[in-house]
Amino acid sequence: MLCKRIVVALDIKDGYVVKGINFDNLSESGDPLDFAARYQQNGADEIVFLDISACLEKRKTLLQLVEKISEKLSVPFTVGGGVSCVNDVADLFKSGADKVFINTAALEDPDLIKRIAIRYGSANLVVAVDSRLKNSEYRVYSTSGKKEAPYELVQWCLKAQQLGAGELLITSIDRDGTRNGFDLDMLDRLADKISIPIIVSGGAGSMDDFKKAFERGADAALGAGVFHSNTFTPNTLKSFLREEKINVRL
Amino acid sequence: MQKILIIDTGTGNLKNVVRAFGAEVSSCEKEIRSADKIIFPGVGSFDTVMQNIGHLKAAILEHIHRQKPFLGICIGMQILFEGSEEGHEKGLGVFKGNVLKIRKAKAPHMGWNSLTITRCSRILKNISEKDFFYFVHSFYAVPENIKSLAFTQHLSEKGCLRMCSVIEENNIFLTQFHPEKSYLSGEKIIENFRRTV
Asked: Who's near B11: CB < 8 A, 6+ residues apart?
């Protein structure tokens, strides 16, 4: 039976792993190569690499880093941040990414999802969606949460799915870095409407948070700070989940 | 020393397969004819892959008919059947049966899953039902005249699908999952393939 996945995210800025709160207040915490190797060893089912400094001149450095990291990993490795066209996707796959995610560029040009899916297949394409509650409606934001997009969450997710996204990475901007738990209401709105896998992100603080997310229909749940600070390792978390009758890889 | 070649399907990233197997990539017919073992990697859609390897079909079939070890991963498993719902191109037709779209359960079937193993084999040596493998696919092969070596159950809110996930027939080894992305369990498969003769 298919396992629920524990995804570890490495937010990278200028070559270092960093972690922020509510998409801001970055603090530096170390070498991405060490992080990636350590997480593979202690049970991460997938590693996500988000380049948050992604501007043009730093692009090459990123590709070199992706290449070095992919050499160390034999678990799936997803990369995104600053992807703006099909050629960017091509570069990331060539450098060793297994899956690529897009965010702002898809909001600005939704057909990009289709163009990537046709060339590389839906299964390797993740659409990342950042959302926060505004006037009791979940709105979608682009540009690292700075700009409001003309979509409500479910509406955008359905569109992305229909255009060829293979998976959705849903982040709650309000919960990001707070460790107050995943936004389960957000998840509820999506779980029975979306048929592709959903990775829930933003707010992981306790092992119970992961359990709740899986019980509410998430296929995968993502943590960053909670793992970087060694609150618990992916394997410790998965032992707990198995005891709670949730199917995981151990 | 045995010469293992990875077939260049022209569909993108083969780096992970190259690293995992320590083998070279080739799209040269002559090189493929002289290889001891062939790996058909798992990237790309059915039609694109079939079109890109058009000039290599005869060499691949000859390799298989001479019973030299062949490992097909994901799409590399599917192209050995007659055809696929994913496209219009004909498959290599080494085995009877077709490749169908996952309809009964959530698609893509993405993530770590285990195997129900039906018999002893070379490719699954030292592997048990406690091992997990990484799958990522929306189509699956349904063999008609051969027995599956292992099955995988894909259970989701939408329904349950039991599909063939490993085949071993003579020297043909096929896995629907990606051994190169399956960490320690995958390394065992890679080692088992290395040891085949």
From this structure: A120, B43, B44, B45, B48, B49, B52
